[in-house]
Specification:
single chain; 305 residues; alpha+beta; 2 domains; 14% strand; elongated
Length: 305
């Protein structure tokens, strides 16, 4: 090869490498500015402003729609990334893509630097492993990813595919309630329903409760998934709240409603000398009337009628 051809070949390789790098950067930016990513980061910002995410507390996941998956598939940063084997299999999630927070990430940093703190994971063809295909910048997905995946499978089935968001945060008043209330769904739900009229509208099925367990493992994942067969939100004793929904707004609104009701309940108890024997509250008949007039499928097992 002549010197001219060698120079020409070197220049071509450099130019092509530059084009590939530029194309990759554009693809990364396209994903980063996709509407579902903006919705994800907005929820994180709102949760941080509420004070629900101390240090690296809390996590979020979103199951992409088929159309969203198609728009990003060609732009994924590492389609040959290694698979990470799960200790369970969820065949109903086979081939799904999830946008998730990273392990150890601080929620307040996500809106300003999403590429380093969140990422997209792909589930394999039999739902037994995942791989990171965009983002996270060398970081692993949240340690509670197994819980998220189990709960996604349950809530997707329970809602005929409508549920796409799973949100875990540490709202202080809900956590405080777990110190003074019996840890059963009926008692917890009734306290919240009777604290504020909007509650039976926002979560007519009630809320589930899981006793304290070490987070991030299979045991708490299974316990949460079992509760979420029946409830869109589950309280974790001394830890926080898991909420689910079809959109970011609805999921955030559910958590916000539960936390506000817990705040009102706690304030009322303090005003009442620590007792929950209140002078005024919403009667069970009143709760049933709300459900009847609004056509809600309320959990009648939680009412004394």
């Amino acid at each position: 090869m002549s010197a001219f051809n060698q120079i020409n070949d070197a220049v071509s390789k450099t130019v092509n490498a530059g084009i590939d790098t530029l194309a990759s950067s554009v693809a990364q930016a396209q994903i980063q500015h996709a509407p579902f990513v903006r919705g994800f980061t907005d929820l994180c910002a709102n949760g941080w402003q509420q004070g629900w995410h101390e240090r690296n507390g809390g996590n979020l996941s979103y199951r992409l729609t088929p159309e969203e998956a198609d728009t990003v598939r060609a732009s994924l940063s590492d389609p040959s990334a290694p698979w990470v084997v799960l200790d369970f299999s969820e065949p109903t999630l086979a081939g799904e893509f999830f946008l998730v927070t990273g392990a150890g990430c601080y929620i307040q940093n996500i809106p300003n630097d999403p590429l380093s703190n969140i990422g997209i994971v792909e589930v394999n063809e039999n739902g037994s492993a995942y791989r990171v295909v965009w983002g996270l910048a060398g970081r692993q997905p949240t340690s509670e990813l197994p819980t998220h995946l189990m709960v996604h499978a349950i809530r997707s089935s329970a809602t005929k595919g409508a549920c796409r968001v799973i949100y875990h945060a540490h709202p202080r008043n809900v956590i405080a309630m777990t110190a003074v209330e019996p840890l059963d769904a009926r008692t917890f739900t009734r306290a919240l329903w009777k604290a504020m009229t909007e509650c039976i509208i926002a979560f007519p099925e009630g809320v589930g409760v899981v006793p304290w367990m070490v987070p991030g493992g299979r045991t708490i994942a299974q316990a949460s998934a079992e509760q979420m067969k029946h409830f869109a939100a589950v309280v974790w004793a001394q830890h926080g709240l898991f909420a689910s929904g079809p959109t970011f707004d609805e999921t955030f609104g559910l958590m916000q409603t539960i936390e506000k009701a817990a705040d009102i309940y706690g304030r009322a108890r303090m005003m009442n000398g620590g007792s929950n024997d209140f002078l005024n509250t919403i009667s069970d008949e009143g709760l049933a009337q709300i459900a009847d007039e609004l056509g809600l499928d309320a959990n009648r097992d939680f009412l004394d009628l």
